[in-house]
Amino acid sequence: MTKLIINADDFGYSKGVNLGIIEAYKNGVVTSATMMTNMPGAAHAAALALENPDLGVGVHLVLDCGRPVSDSVPSLINENGDFHKIDGLEKYAELSDIEKEYTCQIEKFLSLGLVPTHLDSHHHLHGHKKIYPIVEKLAQKYNLPVRKVSAEQGHSSNSNLKMVNYFNHEFFGDDLTTELFIEIINKTLSYEISEVMTHPAFIDESILRGSSYALQRVRELTILTSEEVKEAIVNKKIDLATYKEVSHQSLV
What we know:
Layout: E1 3-11, H1 15-26, E2 32-35, H2 42-51, E3 56-61, H3 86-92, H4 95-111, E4 119-121, H5 132-142, E5 166-168, H6 178-187, E6 193-198, H7 205-210, H8 215-224, H9 227-235, E7 239-241, H10 243-247
Parallel strand pairs: 1-2, 1-6, 1-7, 2-3, 3-4, 5-6
Helix pairs in contact: 1-8, 6-9
Organism: Cytobacillus spartinae
Pfam family, one: YdjC
Function: Probably catalyzes the deacetylation of acetylated carbohydrates an important step in the degradation of oligosaccharides.
């Protein structure tokens, strides 16, 4: 039977995002989430995670949204103390500061009373050829699986880390439909275990002002809780899973 992890990114961004993810878990098909431990909603997300222990929760490593967890990573921040945008990161970021900040984010997650299931990153920055070795090192240190990144991004072999067989990031954008999500599910059927990335949320002021991807998240939530999607997963005999099952597998 095909195993499928449906992961909700950005857990911890805000209360609206957190509550939308929990709705998609309780009344939809989301099985997993990854938390931005540097964002204002992190403590609220952790409380929700503790109330819902069967939701797999990992760490959504962040370098380009909000502020750092560490109080001493000067190359990662602008004059206001916020993370640089991606172009600023490429110009100023020092690898030692990236490793320090990523470590602090994982340790903050642990301090909230949670055990992480895996690592991924905001805007897929862990796939950057200079950043990937840091994530590989931390994944081995904490014994965690990592979201699969494509070979085209120039990083080293994935053979040292536990990953799913297939990762799909296509459920994103302005034209999302139930049919599209079911098409994405169909792409996972030939693999033993896969992950599909999602971003469900209820909209609040924080996400409306802070993210260019806001109203689309409500559409995602509607699709992820739809009866059509639930029925498709049952009919296709898909076993919904979390990264806990990847942890117990041999290296992919």
